[in-house]
Amino acid sequence: KADMWSAGICLYVMLFGQVPFKASSMFELHQLIQKGKYEIVDDSISAEAKDLLSKLIQTNPKKRLSAMECLNHPWLQRTQDGSETINTNRLDLANVIFTENEKFNIKKDYLYRLEKIKQ
């Protein structure tokens, strides 16, 4: 779930063009991150986007969204015309493939790089 926190930070940067935590020292930055206090710097961001951010930049890993919960969040499911949603079946298939390959000790990062080469 630490990766999901990082995804929340990336989403914040994409939405606002700046990082959510700013400090003059590493110690101060670490304290701000631990407290999880950040500002929404643009009021035009939708309530759904704010909700997703708050659930990703959650300091308690047990309360933070999983990858699948994130993909099923209303903000990511909504499209401009409201007609399409993310197909999570492909993700389920990818997880099965990775799980089966782990039985043969094939590393996920190797498979990922191999897939990138094929593209």
Q: Give the distance, in angstroms, between the N- and C-terminal Cα atoms.
A: 28 Å
CATH architecture call of the largest domain: Orthogonal Bundle
The topology string of helices and strands comes to: HHHHHHH
**The number of domains:** 2
GO molecular function: ATP binding; protein serine/threonine kinase activity
Protein name: Protein kinase domain-containing protein
InterPro entries: Aur-like, Kinase-like_dom_sf, Prot_kinase_dom
Keywords: ATP-binding, Kinase, Nucleotide-binding, Serine/threonine-protein kinase, Transferase
Describe this structure in words.
The protein is mostly helical and 119 residues long. The chain folds into 2 domains: 2-77, Transferase(Phosphotransferase), domain 1; 88-118. Helices cover 60% and strands 0% of the residues. α1 (2-16) packs antiparallel against α3. The longest helix is centred in the last third of the chain and has 16 residues, at 88-103.
